[in-house]
């Protein structure tokens, strides 16, 4: 299958390395900074000290931008700002695996991803000040504008993925959405289409444990990553505080998406 779900847990897992009450997850760096040996190591063998420093720099920069924008919102300079505090590693680790020709469909919270695509800080805030319908030109950075309709961007990704198949390129598509969004019809419909048409779409669920005031446990009786296999989409849970682990699982998912291995296969 050419689609994937990455579920990450930005809230520090409470039950020790490698597992929470909801089951196992991928982790390459423990909270104390020590390295965990994992079957995912080969996906990040090439990541040396320079790239690790660069990933850290990205996370520091977007936290600074996020802090400033949150302050501007509190001062009334922005009408709204969706903070990404705690989701830095998930956004940077995944976005830094993408090629420029890949296409991103994010929610309203993927400002760190947009930063990695080359969007400047002022442009990240334009929409939230009410100055523009889109903060950036989607085709100059290959990332769709901010999406506030919960889950709608997953459908756009599935459609774009069908276009990639028609074009016959090895580009990949990634769509980001929250834990709450997985209960929306749009996300479920997107997975049906993405799986049925063998599209190169990676579904990245940023599980920050809450959909406004609703905890994830109210809407999901199983780990959210377990929903994907029901659509025929392989899935993995990963520690969203671990930039290296997020990079590893996203590389694996993108590689599967690009490979085209399912395109020639017969359908049921
Ligand atoms: C279709 C739709 N329904 C309801 C809302 C109102 N709404 C805004 S944010 C949000 C919660 C989304 O939670 P989640 O998907 O977990 O994303 P998070 O904000 O945690 O990143 C809701 C219901 C909306 N924007 N769009
Ligand atoms: Mg959420």
What's this entry about, in short?
With 268 residues, the chain is of the alpha/beta class.
Could you describe the 3D structure shown?
This protein has 268 residues and is an alpha/beta fold. The chain has a single domain (4-49, 83-110, 137-259), classed as Rossmann fold, CATH 3.40.50.970. It is built from 9 helices and 9 strands. The chain has helices at 49-74, 88-95, 111-117, 121-126, 138-141, 152-167, 185-196, 216-219, 243-259; strands at residues 4-8, 19-20, 23-24, 103-105, 173-178, 201-206, 210-211, 214-215, 235-238. Helix 6 packs parallel to helix 7 (185-196). The relative contact order is 0.22. Residues 7-17 have low confidence and may be disordered.
Distance between the termini: 12 Å
* Helicity level: 25-40%
CATH fold name: Rossmann fold
Q: Using only CA atoms, what is the Rg?
A: 18 Å
β content, as a range?
Answer: 5-15%
CATH C-level name:
Alpha Beta
* Count of structural domains: 1
Number of helices: 9
Backbone shape = globular
Q: Which kinds of small molecule does this entry bind, naming each only once?
A: thiamine diphosphate, magnesium ion
């Amino acid at each position: 299958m050419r689609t994937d779900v990455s579920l990450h847990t930005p809230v520090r897992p409470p039950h020790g390395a490698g597992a929470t009450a909801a089951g196992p997850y991928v982790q390459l760096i423990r909270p104390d900074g020590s390295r965990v040996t994992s079957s995912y190591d080969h996906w990040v063998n090439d990541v040396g000290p320079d790239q690790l420093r660069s990933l850290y720099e990205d996370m520091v920069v977007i936290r600074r931008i996020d802090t400033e924008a949150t302050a501007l919102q509190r001062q009334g300079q922005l009408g709204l700002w969706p903070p990404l505090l705690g989701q830095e590693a998930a956004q940077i680790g995944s976005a830094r695996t993408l090629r420029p020709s890949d296409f991103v469909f994010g929610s309203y919270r993927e400002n760190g991803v947009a930063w990695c695509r080359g969007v400047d800080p002022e442009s990240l805030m334009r929409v939230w000040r009410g100055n523009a319908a889109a903060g950036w030109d989607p085709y100059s950075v290959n990332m769709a504008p901010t999406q506030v309709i919960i889950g709608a961007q997953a459908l756009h990704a599935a459609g774009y993925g069908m276009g990639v198949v028609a074009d016959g390129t090895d580009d990949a598509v990634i769509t980001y959405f929250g834990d709450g969004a997985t209960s929306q019809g749009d996300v479920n419909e997107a997975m049906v289409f993405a799986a049925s048409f063998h599209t190169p779409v990676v579904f990245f669920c940023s599980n920050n444990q809450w959909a406004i005031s609703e905890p994830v446990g109210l809407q999901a009786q199983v780990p959210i990553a377990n929903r994907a296999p029901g659509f025929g989409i392989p899935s993995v849970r990963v520690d969203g505080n671990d930039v290296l682990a997020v990079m590893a699982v996203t590389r694996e998912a993108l590689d599967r998406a690009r490979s085209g291995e399912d395109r020639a296969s017969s359908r049921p």
